[in-house]
Amino acid sequence: MTAPATQYDALVLGSGPAGLSIALGLSRVRRRAAIFTKPNGAGFRNEGAAEMHNVISRDRTPPAEFRSVATKQIRNYGTVDFIEAEIVDIQQTTGENGAPGTFEVVAENGRSWTGRKLALAMGSVEVFPDIEGYRENWPHNIFQCFFCDGYERSHLPGGVLGFPNPAYAHLAQMLNLLVTPSSGPATVFSDGPVPDNEAMQAALEKVRALNFNVETGKIIRLVPAVEPDVGVTVVVEGGKEYKLGYLGHKPYTVLAGKDVITKLGVETEDNPVMGESIKTVDPLGSTNIKGVFVAGDAGTPMKAVANACGSGATVAAGIVQQLITEDMEVVLASKKSS
Q: Lipoprotein: is it a keyword of this entry (predicted)?
């Protein structure tokens, strides 16, 4: 006789810092959950990074080590199943007589799992610009956040890539905090003539006030340094080269697993600079679909490990709040009918 399928309290799609934090929170109150370790085949955004930074008590910890320790601690509770499966479909069932429905996720091989709540923690994926060598330098030489990276190379010259967007003036100002006597002035690369409009000229005024170099030549390629050296050489038209310790650039991001998310009816939003994210409707990470939550990079333009951990813990609280509310309604109804 085949054993009945497990009915989980929650299905957690994604096992990065956000998904692991959700799983830990649910474990602490004895809720059963399944966490999917590769729900969309996209991997982890910080996979190529040697260390995590700006994470209290875990500064300079390798990302893989962080995930390994967290997974071991969660397994010790015995309430979470870790499942390696690529999810290709999500369906929502309707409950009977007004009862809450459930969610079913389906893997590439046809296997499925059901849960009362669904947490989207699959993260996001960078869309790299069409510059030769960009991919080979991401993320170990190109940094999207100077809170997360840059300090360790602040003795070396730095630069900002993609300057034609005036929003990059802010990234340049952040980079200026890392400028040291040994690094010398930083360089911003406009990748062509600077547009003659008010916003761009105001941004240009700011970076020049900081004594940055401004390179307007077209970028030809980015060449990673050969170990034991670190950094990247920016080659611009005419053969001019800039040997830098690092570059700042924030590429546009898209939602990992967007097809299955939008099919479910979850609302998303698009920031032309920061990229796509899932809309939330309350402080606990709820989406427009009741029972569906979002945590981590998928739910915010502020993509960082510490933020993902915090949002995961918050979503765990949101899930449990909905569960106990529904369970209490069942208890009260049964008392009235007895």
A: no
